[in-house]
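Question: what's this shape?

___
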Amino acid sequence: MSNTPIELKGSSFTLSVVHLHDANPEVIRQALEDKIAQAPAFLRHAPVVVNIASIEEEVEWRAINEAIAATGLRIMGVSGCKIPRLKTEIDRAGIPLLTEGKEKASRPATVRTPPRRRQLLVRSQKRV
């Protein structure tokens, strides 16, 4: 038995990712219900990540969230969000903002300077 009441460990989980290509909540709900009907045992009440990278317009997150929840799917996080106002809205809803493994934060370009040439100084015919 451990001496501490909790233990925090890292783990990896495989989650389905719902990629949204339409911002209309009713279209999203109907498309998800159709998909769930194809594999109800696999998708009913499934934990999912919602990727909104394709959504570039202003959207009403609350309506999208409600449409997804109405299908029984459980949102574990949102990825691909590029709109600051939308990020704030999702965060306020208590949903984690995630970065997918293939998304990498851009690093500043490395500036390479050529090596300096060494100079050989000669004084009074002696090397210094």
